[in-house]
Amino acid sequence: MNIKMRAGVAAIAIAVTFTGVIAAPPPVQAQGLLDALFKRPAQRQREQLAREQARQQAEAAPQPAKPVARISGPTYRTYKPDTLVAIDFSKLSDPITTGAVGDLGLAPLGIDPFAEGRAALDTLSVRALPEAAKALIEHYSAHPDYLWVAGSSVTDRARAVVSVLEDADAVGLSAADYKVEIPADSFDLTNATERQKELMAFEMKLTAAVANYIVDATRGRVDPNRISGYHDFARKSPDLVDRLEALSKAADPAEALLAQNPQGAHFEALKAELARLQDLDEGERVEIAENVLIKPGQSDPELANVMAAIKLKGSDALKVDNALVLASYAGKPDYDDEIVALVEGFQKEAGLKPDGVIGPATRRALVGITSADKIEKVRLAMERARWLPGVLASRRVFINQPAYTATYYDGGKPELSMRVVVGTKANQTYFFDDQIELVEFNPYWGVPQSIIINEMLPKLRADPSYLDRLGYEVTANGQAVSSSAINWNAVGKGSGIGVRQPPSDGNALGELKILFPNSHAIYMHDTPSKSLFQRDTRAFSHGCIRLEDPRAMAAKVLGTTVAEIGGHIAGGQNKQVNLSSKIPVHVAYFTAWPDETGAVQYFDDIYGRDDYLQKAIAATQAERTS
């Protein structure tokens, strides 16, 4: 052994001696030196192979499952209303109204009433929505003149506009938000300066109220996106300066102001219904327990209230056909065949499934809702109507989630309406506007990440080949792989795993889907689960809209026939057909909405959104009256 080898061995011995039992492993260079000194090549090769095998076994060993972090939907929030701001009248441009005339230095002839009244602005306090405050300053800086005052009096145009503001409740707004006192006609003739200040204050208050009204009438008092992530609307920004100028030139300013509200048969029907309800006597009403559930053959004391409600709510024809049953009923709790037949008749009249089961839907039809409840629903509907376009397109598709219906309009008239299935309360369908662009036949179903993570992943961890057996296609970072090749224990949100179901008879989307691309991955589609359309309550999907008659809807939006739609499907191949022109689609949420005859119908608040909107309006009202 030469000197260098002896030195290396001594160094290792010293290190072991001084570090004790918990000795640090020798450096790589030192370990290599020992191998070179004391081990044969064959032995070193065997040990290297053993280390490699151990490494491979460690990598192949089952890893602890990554905790499943569920993907949850949007949340509802505590509403933050718009804040009113004080109008800064100091920003109002002050045009030069006096100056030299020739070389005499004389004031110009005549008096400018607007200039005379400007002194009132120094102490005037008026609050308005930020957009309204800004528009008022811009308008009067460009047009330093009265809109609502002539000489020393308030104009008839002003009085007509104030009447519209005072009647704001009739269009679903609140008159208290736009209250402006009209100055008395009589005044002290010896104090013209005070009169001009009084008129200037009225001028600014009325213009601020008008600007606020225009904003509210156009887009609503509430920003729906602040209520929850289930609402998705680009908030409208009316050009108030332009609208104030147009109002000043309108032959009938009151009519022009009313026209700021949504236009169309739907809004007129809501206005008429609100007026009707406010004049209506509440009338007689029978109460039935909210949790009632009586099936044929059962016995329940609540049946007496059911019979009383049928006597009150049933049609004359129904009562004539079942006169003997109604006359002989003496309050017995037994739900026998004769009473079942009577209930089925009532259910059929009410548009319910005539199954004889007295549950929530039948109870609602029997009890009805109070006029006060209906008034609130109509007011909420009028607020929501402002989130939609001010004028609805004559050709459109309107989906009303609480009604579980989708309706195709052409020429402003409903041409096709059908039942739909919408999202469950845990997977709510969003409320938004979009445009239909194409129809896909024999579609692939791209499984949303929420379903992969929340529903498929637990099954895949127990059975990695689960998706292979069902015929699903799996991708990892865009590359096709088999389901069994994925380590599902390591998969979580953001893992880059994609899953889709190829076209087939069992495809979740059925024969076709109607697409209006959006960030919520919501569309209309077919479904193999046809039986759900027969139910009165149809909130069963993951958020998309399942159509009862998808071929008919596809034919309407493509402007073709149902037979041609069948031809696209018959080949079994996946294909897309673009619309010749996009069609607006409203994935809407109205618990009160007019039917094709113009009669307002009322629906259950399936997601509890009425309550959240009521709270948002209350918060807005509190801010405006603070």
- As a percent range, the share of helical residues equals 25-40%
CATH class category name of the largest domain: Mainly Beta
**Physical arrangement of strands within the biggest beta sheet:** 6-7-8-17-15-14-9-18
What name does the CATH topology of the largest domain carry?
A: L,D-transpeptidase catalytic domain-like
The CATH superfamily of the largest domain is L,D-transpeptidase catalytic domain-like
User: Can you summarize the main beta sheet?
Assistant: 8 strands, mixed, barrel
Oligomer: single chain
Beta percentage is 5-15%
Gyration radius, in Å: 37 Å
- What is the terminal-to-terminal distance? 97 Å
Q: How would you explain this protein's 3D organization?
A:
It is a single chain. The protein is of the alpha+beta class. It has 4 domains: 3-57, no CATH class; 85-92 and 112-268, no CATH class; 303-367, Muramoyl-pentapeptide Carboxypeptidase, domain 1 (Orthogonal Bundle); 390-607, Beta Barrel (L,D-transpeptidase catalytic domain-like), CATH 2.40.440.10. The strands form 5 sheets. It has an 8-stranded mixed barrel with strand order 6-7-8-17-15-14-9-18. Strands 10-13-11-12 form a 4-stranded antiparallel β-sheet, with no helix packed on it. A two-stranded antiparallel sheet has the order 1-2. The longest helix has 28 residues, at 192-219. The chain is globular.
